[in-house]
Write a structure and sequence with these properties.
The complex is a heterodimer of chains A (127) and B (561).
Chain A: H1 9-22, H2 24-32, H3 50-54, H4 65-72, H5 75-81
Chain B: H1 14-22, H2 27-32, E1 63-65, E2 72-77, E3 87-98, H3 104-113, E4 118-121, E5 133-137, H4 144-157, H5 164-187, E6 193-194, E7 205-206, E8 209-210, E9 213-217, H6 225-238, E10 242-244, E11 249-254, E12 260-266, E13 272-283, H7 292-298, H8 315-322, E14 334-337, E15 352-355, H9 368-371, E16 383-389, H10 392-395, H11 406-409, E17 430-433, H12 436-442, H13 447-463, E18 484-490, E19 492-496, E20 507-509, E21 515-521, H14 542-559
Parallel strand pairs in B: 3-4, 3-13, 4-10, 13-21
Antiparallel strand pairs in B: 1-2, 5-9, 6-9, 7-8, 11-12, 12-13, 14-19, 15-16, 16-18, 17-18, 20-21
Classes of the chains: A mainly alpha (127), B alpha+beta (561).
Chain lengths: 127, 561
């Protein structure tokens, strides 16, 4: 799977800082698409356009998990990177293994949520 | 099966008649058309003329209607036809099982052991199940009259609304099936044990007749039947069963006569695979507790109650409905438990019980499995607490259940630093405090309300008569001596265990009561085994025992077709 974003958190943060400093984020969002959604996009702040996730089809649809993996890397690698998270690894769990759909917790155009919370006391901060 | 007890008459039995008459089916639709994909679009809600398969627009989706035809049911949309060019691969097996759970995995292995070439397609990335205990009747150590007495008890538990034939089928085959599951899971590396009869202590005698049990136990937690089914799947793979994970079934393949020929599944790459089944498709997809609209329709009681499972969206119901199957009438049997907050063995002990705010709300001899009926409002949402004082070991010693001493309760206390064993640490919710007010804060009740409740309860206890709720006098013990204990339980939906109409071969029946060739339904998707408002806890582990038994029997049956 091809990656367009550096996979390591530190490097990703650097990218985020650089794009924020350059002020390119909002400009990119402004030119990327006509929808209001893009204005609340976290990705837009990194210069990523709507089309890169949603495609060029006239009717925009929800982004499949495969799309996330294309940039962020394989699920197993992600699970390995969060192996030390306490109290348990959110990316390798008894319900979905390493294959929980990213979109269940991480939201692009609204506040992310902790899928574990209704049942478990796992107070993860979900970016 | 015990054949001599009832007539295998050709007439439709009462249960089947009732489901056909009042269940959800496509009877009216089928009476007007021969069925099959070719008819798609003819009766679209839009009233537009028929369109060729594959070109219907989203807003023209055909959806199910209620039994009186008055309501359209958006949670049962007709599957969209899938074009041949969208099918990336076609694979052929004898038996295709949809769902790798407590009935699907046994069905697949059983079919393979009986000579079939078997595929399992599973939405999740691995086999999944919940719970720990699965039960069966050990015929060798049971009196025949006892087996029949137990059958009668279970029928009564279902308010006499179940299909007695299925209860008998479980009673006379479950010992063999559960023993088989234990053996095969062990072969896959599972530490499963047979707890036998001792854990079924309340039903060792039924109507005075002696009984023996086979009781599989896949615990202690966090090891559960989910791990057990993953181990069983390893044995199944060795037996030649092929597992296809992350592939939800999206459509049954039917011929013009309505016979089920296979199933189409969608891979995570968006490509479809067509699985052809020469002998039959066995759907074992579980319930629909995470499908809100469907759940609100069939079991409105649980609208405000939490769910213990994820992604149980009723996929099999939609597949089988559109293939001609019949969903049991509205008012499905539900199962709500909390065996995690405190010791399971104390869940039914009739200590003072208070609602979420701290008020007494019930005669506490009502079992935990039924308490959801008192806690289904949005405010309580399944929360309640059991309250007792430090004299509990002596004062409740003769009660049914098994007391855990104070040292053992620490294992269930989130505030206690001692290491936890055999529990889900993130779900324990037992507390101890020196005052009632402090205990109230820990169990998240209102301190003043709980204090008033305890004061009143102690007055009732002192009087020797429960003039508030009528609990028997020997179940009245005071809450006076610190420290005080509280187990904050929160019952959530474990399963919804009503399903779709099947015969004794677990073959789906259509709205005319005729078998749908090639289609079998087991586990919580299968219907007829329950019928009451709630799942009975008469036999501890009945649900998983039923799943194993009907998986075992159906796999063998379909393999031999």
């Amino acid at each position: 799977m091809k990656r367009t974003i550096a996979p390591k958190p530190a490097a990703a943060l650097l990218v985020l800082l650089l794009t924020a400093l350059s002020g390119g984020g909002l400009a990119a969002a402004g030119t990327a698409g006509k929808g209001q959604a893009a204005r609340t996009s976290k990705h837009a702040g990194q210069g990523i356009t709507c089309v890169q996730c949603h495609g060029k089809a006239a009717k925009k649809s929800a982004v499949a998990m495969q799309q996330c993996l294309g940039c962020h890397g394989e699920t197993k690698e992600l699970a390995a990177r969060t192996a030390q998270v306490k109290p348990t690894n959110p990316h390798e769990n008894r319900h979905f293994g390493t294959e929980a759909d990213c979109n269940r917790c991480h939201h692009e155009h609204m506040t992310s949520e902790n899928l574990c919370l209704p049942c478990h006391k796992f107070n993860f901060k979900v970016p | 099966m015990s054949q001599e007890h009832f007539q295998e008459d050709k007439e439709t039995d009462q249960y089947t008649k009732q489901v056909i008459e009042n269940g959800l089916s496509r009877r009216s639709f089928l009476s007007r058309a021969a069925g099959g994909a070719a008819a798609a679009g003819l009766f679209g809600l839009s009233g537009l003329p028929a369109v060729a398969a594959g070109t219907a627009k989203t807003r023209d989706l055909e959806v199910a209607t209620s039994s009186d035809g008055g309501a359209t049911l958006s949670f049962l949309p007709k599957p969209k036809p899938i074009r041949d060019r969208e099918i990336a691969e076609t694979l052929t097996f004898d038996v295709v099982v949809v769902g790798a759970g407590a009935s699907g995995v046994p069905a697949a292995l059983s079919a393979a052991e009986n000579g079939a070439k078997v595929a399992v397609i599973q939405k999740a990335p691995f086999a999944l199940s919940q719970g720990n205990t699965g039960s069966g009747v050990d015929l060798a150590t049971s009196e025949k009259a006892g087996v029949e007495a137990l059958v009668a008890r279970l029928i009564a538990d279902s308010n006499h609304r179940c299909n007695p034939k299925l209860i008998r089928q479980w009673a006379y085959h479950s010992g063999e099936a559960v023993r088989w599951v234990i053996d095969r899971a062990r072969q896959g590396g599972s530490p499963v044990v047979d707890q036998g009869s001792p854990v079924q202590r309340a039903i060792l005698k039924v109507n005075g007749y002696g009984m023996g049990y086979v009781t599989s136990f896949f615990g202690p937690k966090p090891y559960t039947t989910g791990d057990g089914m993953r181990h069983l799947a390893k044995t199944a793979e060795k037996a030649g069963v092929r597992f296809f994970y992350l592939m939800p079934a999206v459509q049954l393949v039917q011929n013009k006569a309505g016979e089920v020929m296979g199933v189409i599944a969608k891979g995570s790459n968006g490509k479809y695979t067509k699985f052809l089944a020469k002998k039959g498709v066995i759907l074992a997809t579980g319930d629909y507790q995470n499908n809100k609209a469907m759940s609100d329709y069939f079991v409105p009681d649980v609208k405000h109650l939490g769910r213990k499972q994820l992604d149980k969206t009723g996929d099999g119901f939609a597949l089988a409905y559109w293939a001609g199957g019949v969903i049991e009438p509205i008012g499905h049997t539900k199962m709500l438990h909390d065996f995690d907050a405190g010791p399971a063995s104390m869940c039914d002990m009739p200590f003072l019980a208070v609602d979420r705010k701290g008020r007494r709300f019930v005669n506490e001899t009502v079992e935990m499995s039924l308490l959801n009926n008192y806690l289904r409002d949005a405010e309580n949402a399944g929360h309640y607490s059991q309250i007792f004082d430090s004299n509990y070991m002596a004062q409740a010693a003769t009660w049914p259940g098994k007391l855990v001493p104070p040292e053992g309760l620490k294992n269930y206390m989130p505030d206690d630093p001692s290491p936890k064993k055999g529990v889900f640490e993130s779900q324990v919710n037992t507390h101890v405090a020196d005052t009632i007010e402090e205990l109230a804060r820990k169990i998240e009740a209102d301190p003043a309300t709980l204090a008033a409740t305890v004061k009143r309860y102690n007055e009732v206890v002192a009087s020797g008569k429960d003039s508030d709720f009528g609990k028997p006098a020997d179940r009245l013990i005071p809450v006076v001596k610190a420290p005080f204990y509280g187990i904050h339980r929160r019952v959530r939906v474990s399963a919804i265990c009503s399903g779709m109409l099947v015969d004794e071969n677990h073959q789906a029946l259509n709205a005319e009561g005729k078998p749908i060739k090639g289609l079998f339904l087991i586990g919580n998707l299968g219907g007829g085994f329950y019928g009451g408002v709630d799942y009975p806890l008469t036999v501890f582990g009945l649900s998983l025992g039923r799943c194993y038994t009907f998986g075992y029997l159906t796999g063998r049956h379909v393999a031999k077709l």
